[in-house]
Amino acid sequence: MSTVEHPASGIRERFGFWKRSYAMLIKEFIQLKRDRVSFAMIVMLPVMQLLLFGYAINTTPHNLPSAVLLQEDSDLARSVLKALENTKYFRFLYEVHDVEDFDNLLKSGKVLFGVEIPRGFERAVRRGDRPALLVAADATDPVAASAAIGSLGMVVQTALKHDLYIGDPPEMPFEIRAHARYNPAAASSLNIVPGLVGTILTMTMLIFTALSVTREVERGTMEALLSMPIKPVEVMFGKIIPYVLVGFVQAFLIIGIGVLLFGVPVLGNLILLALLTTLFIATNLSIGYTISTLVQNQLQAMQMSMMFFLPSILLSGFMFPFAGMPAWAQYVGEALPLTHYLRIVRAIMLKGATMQNLRFDALALALLMAVAMTIAVTRFRRTLD
Fold first, then answer.
1. CA distances (Å), origin 163, targets 83, 178, 275
2. What is the pLDDT tens value at each position of the chain, 385 positions in all?
3. Could you give the 3-state DSSP secondary structure of residue 114?
4. Residues ≥6 apart with Cβ < 8 Å to 310
């Protein structure tokens, strides 16, 4: 015997579907409203991206930090320096009189360009000897160096127009030789591969540590762990040390592949690189641990890690030239561990830099690690009380 479905029951079923769906929708909105961290991330992420790309990112950087090795203080030499500054690409911060100081400024990354004006320069120009003026560029970041090097052609005419000739000179009485140091072929792989070491370590160390601690809390195993005779600092170190080894494996893989497949050189001391990489890994793990004490679940831990990672890749000099950013963006970048580690890894691998050249960035990493660990331990103890 067949049963015939009453039309009213079908209508009730359809209305029931929409009613239940509407109830579920309201429930999700209420839950989202209660999860203030996730709601804040929804608003802050697009706003942060818009502000950073709109105000901080500049692919044609100007006013790049420069130094001059001034072996002759003459009117023509000063005119050449003024003409270089008038291109808006060079900003002279240092004046040195020793070749070693000149090289150290480039190796440490304090300047991107160095201009050498030789002794007897103006006299040679007036005699018609066509002396050469050297412009050394730190080409580890080809984007920052290429536009500035391309502007050198107009400098000769600008300088001579004020000092020796009215109008264009009949022939160029001196030449500017641009020397791209550390990456003369402007190969992008030499810039990107060392940067990837820091970028990948930042992402994985932050996320691994933040999720590791938060997972213990969600599963309820943290209470059992803390019931044991163990101190919060010991819990922190026990959580951090395994990931230091993980970070070493990742760094070894990236550098090894970069050397074997892309021909990236390693000119500096590998032991120094290993020590400073350990410091960088510990700094990121401390920040990840701090994030884990601020959130309530793994989703929030992931969201907050990405909130820290986004400005790190945009303001550290990995994707865009650091020296071309506005002053406020550079101040923010200096507070990010990745900014200092990128200078360290590129300087050791591509320039053969020593600890003397890198002491500022090493001290900055140590300070950031100390601050992050202090906050993490303080927050962790507070959650136990």
1. 12, 23, 52
2. 445 555 556 566 666 667 777 777 777 677 667 666 666 667 776 777 777 767 677 777 888 899 999 888 888 888 888 888 888 888 899 998 888 899 999 998 889 999 998 888 888 888 878 888 888 989 888 877 887 887 776 666 565 555 555 445 556 677 888 888 888 888 888 888 899 999 999 998 988 888 877 877 777 666 666 666 667 677 777 778 888 888 889 999 999 999 998 889 999 999 999 999 999 999 999 899 888 888 877 888 888 888 899 889 988 988 888 887 888 889 999 999 999 999 999 999 999 999 999 999 999 999 999 999 888 888 776 655 5
3. strand
4. 45, 48, 49, 52
Residue 171, classed as helix, strand or coil, is: coil
Question: Can you say whether residue 167 is alpha, beta or left, with left for phi > 0 and alpha for psi between -120 and 50 degrees?
Answer: left
Question: What is the C-alpha end-to-end distance of the chain, expressed in Å?
Answer: 70
The domains found in the chain, sorted by start residue, are: 20-57+187-379 (no CATH), 64-163 (3.40.1710.10)
- Are the beta carbons of 225 and 235 closer than 8 angstroms? yes
Q: How far apart are CA 141 and CA 182, in angstroms?
A: 10
pTM of the model: 0.82
